[in-house]
Amino acid sequence: MVTSSFRFSTGNLPLHARGKALHELRDRGVLPLEPLPGCEVDVRIAKWFLPGAGVLSGSLCGVRQDAGPRTPDAGDDLFFGVNVTGGSTAIQRGRRIALGDGDAILLSCDAGPFTILRPGPVRFLGLRVPRKTLGPLIASFDDASVRFIPGQTDALRLLSTYVSAATNIDVLASAEIAHLVATHLHDLIALSVGATRDAAVAAEGRGVRAARLQAIKSDVSANLGDESLSLAGVAARHHVTPRYVHKLFEGEGITYSQFVLRQRLDGAYRRLRDPRFAARSISWIAYEAGVGDLSYFNRAFRRRYHATPSDVRNER
Length: 316
Fold this sequence. Notes:
- There is one protein chain.
- With 316 residues, the chain is an alpha+beta fold.
- The chain is 42% helix and 23% strand.
- It has two domains: 4-215, Jelly Rolls; 223-316, Arc Repressor Mutant, subunit A (Orthogonal Bundle).
- It has helices spanning 15-27, 131-134, 154-166, 175-193, 197-204, 207-222, 231-237, 242-250, 256-273, 282-288, 294-305, 309-314, and strands at residues 4-9, 33-35, 42-50, 53-61, 63-67, 77-85, 88-92, 95-99, 104-108, 114-118, 122-130, 147-149.
- The radius of gyration is 23 Å and the shape is globular.
- The model has no long low-confidence stretch (mean pLDDT 89).
């Protein structure tokens, strides 16, 4: 079983105790952090272990992160860090690289120790992958040099969205799916850095496809209450064609329209079971879910749950 392996937060600690907590975190080999003088420390992280990838995400403030060949668990790995929001400075072999919103960096411990300074609040994503796995996927790979990746690249945005979704779903409890997720991460990192021709082709049909599908699902879920939610609008927001969206959902044995309807019905079902909405009419719940035709809503709801909305409400 693959699950979230570790979580840590200074949120409930008094300010004077946070430095000691970071030292304990470093000594346990979880994350080599040091407080920055004159800065308020705030650390909230979660760490996952997948077959072929380590994933670290969360927020950091007022800390310095050091790593090198002697760092616990560094091994023969490459480190890919995404500065989701906020500003950081990466330093290796005398070179300083400023990272802004969305920027990323590829580092190798074998090239020498490196430091990342985060004096202010930063939301970040860190990935650790074996050099033997990622190296062959990257064009002109040289693990002795730092790679800076500007934040506006499509592959980087997909990577950030995909990791956020993949580490918040129960499917990671499946070892087979966890391995697939790790493969998708390798694809997306390689594309972000600069993939070889063969790796790019493989990634388009594998990691990119999975990440785009997840991004579109998240987009739909966030806009279910919009009755005018359309395939054309969703496709345009993700810079793909409606036909491409159709093909993504076909790979899961469902159509785009069926997915949208199921999500809307599931949202209505949850409201019907929630005492907070007991005073709301069924028509209000249908419209809130994004279904404007009440008769159609009732028919579709009964087909999905083999019960009427009134039956579900009365079961509470």
